[in-house]
Structures are given as structure tokens and as C-alpha cells.
Amino acid sequence: MGGAMRGLKLRDARNADKKVVLDFCRNTWPGYGDFIPQVWDRWIRQRRGRFIVAELEGQPVGIAKITDFGYGEIWLEGLRVDPRHRRKGIARAINREVLRTLKLIKPRVARFCTAQSNRASRKIGSQYGFSVIARFRYYWDEPRRGRISGEVVG
To answer: Does residue 81 belong to any structural domain of this protein?
Structure first.
């Protein structure tokens, strides 16, 4: 762990990074995958905010997105590190670059959302001054088999 890896370069994302990044994001959430393939092209085109890549030995090993909604509101999203390079300080280095960028943008507020179970992300967030403002429960259920009633109540 410790500091960022020697030779780690932080830069803006490029179209040429897409294949490598989508490959290491493929199994972010087992059984679901990741939303990065659905947003990649839009993120690359956006001019407000910043799409950051962490590169090691010429290959992308991590990403993060700063989305600027305007009116001083920033949304931080898409922090990912290649599973083969986790626990090496890459997420921390990316977050330092995010904070450096935020100091230039000077937003009124910056927010992010993460799963309660994502201890690493929550820890990094608290170390950089973020606090929990809301908690949500995720619920999923399969519909029961059988006939669906056409009855409307109300």
C-alpha cells in the first residue's frame, strides 16, 4: 500500500483507452458488470468536468469522472482500478488528482455515492473530508409467478 506507485501517470482519458478500461471494468459487480460501457462515449465527449485515467507503463489501470452540473455542483463517479493493480495506492493517487482539479474548479459542493459495503471508497472519502448525508437500502425481488391483476386501486 503506502504511496502511489512509481511511474503512475494521471492524465485525461482518450478514446484509445476504451478497450483496456472496459475490460478491467467488466466484472465490477458480479452478475451485473458495470455501467461504464454505457457512459464511456458520453464521458469522453463532455467538456465540463474531467475524465481522468491513471496510466502505468503505458496502460490504463484506473479511472475517475468529475461531472460538472453547473451552478457550482460537482458529481464524482466512476472510480475504478484494475483488479490486478488494487491495493497499490492508485485509487488514492486518482483521488488526489480529483481534489487538485476541484481546487481549480472551486465548486460550491461535491458529492459522490457508494455502496455501504464499499469500505475502501468510504474510507478514502472520509479521509478527504466527505461525510455521509444519506443512506439508501437497495431492494430487489423477482415478481411472483401467476396472473397479474388488471385491477386498479385508487
So the answer is: yes
